[in-house]
Request: fold
Amino acid sequence: MEEINIWDLGDKINIKLNEDFLKKINLLIRKNFRSKEKFYNKIKKDCDVPYGTFKNLLKYSYYKCNFYSPLSVFISCCNNLYIPKDELQENILSYKTKRGWNTINKPILPIRISPIFDMILAHHMADGNVASTKGRQLYFGYRQFDKELRLLYIKKLESIFGKIKYKKDYFKKSTKPYCPAVISQLFFRYYNLNKRSFLSKKARIPKEIFNKSRGFLLAVILAFIIDEGNIDSTLIVIRLKNIKLTRDLYKICKRLGYKSTFKTKGDYGSLYIVRNGMKKLFKEYKILVKKYPEASLGKFHDKIESGLEIYNRLIYKTKGNRDIIFKMLKKENLTINQIAHSINMTRQGVRWHIHILEKENKIIKKGLIERRNILYGVGG
Reply:
């Protein structure tokens, strides 16, 4: 698995170090250079901080005041004291961008590029935006109204990078968690992307992803199912106002062998993953989620599972379903979803029978529940 070290994140990274490691640096400076000033004179070209600041950076009390040190200072220290950079990385307690306040605590370093990394990127393309405030680097915001899925997004971030410090009670007030700039910048750098790469009509799956293994490709599809997907019994539909991006997802499905179709209408592209493709996808998803629990589909897991289970139930193959539906509607007004759930039948199947009963003038539309759920019943 590919790994990214902290010094690969750019030149605006600030860190907080383990106290014992700071002591080690101080001891080596005293042993090899006798004074901090002599050592500073040797590294000041790479240091980019005045001597007074440099002295403070070597004191652990400095960090108790919630100050951070430029990573570049300690990279220079390690290079000149012959301390391996890997040892420096192992002793980082937290890090952030130079002017950022979101810290990554108990960091996972080096950063491992797993399928979850690409799943996060796909979330930002599907339902995210790129934001910036004055003086700060670009960072991602991610809109998700479902609380479980919102928290799963944070778990994805923290499984790759470490514990992220957010404002207290942040998720009680906001449905839009954000990805700290220090993390967001890695996605830009790793795939050579920019702000325009995440515009709803311009976004494309990076070409490098298509050459990755099945787990990475599946993780991308899962992110779009969560953010833009609709599960209708044994059919997954992903509809985007970005034909090229939708075609990218179709290309991934073909590469994975998920039976699917792709259609366009106006500015929209639609990907349909049909029953056999959905079965294969769900089988591989359950394997992936054992290794990476944060890849969970949340509520969509149950929808897919219940849709597929219908085909193993006797009533699905029972003749006379239309008569059963008609008798139900004689007793009470019901929606297609309510009927499908009650008799363990697919929504597509119920919908087909409903249309025939309407044509035969046996039932009529009685009203709406919420926006799109039509109530059906007998006339009169």
Q: What stands out?
A: The mean pLDDT is 89. The chain has 17 helices and 16 strands.
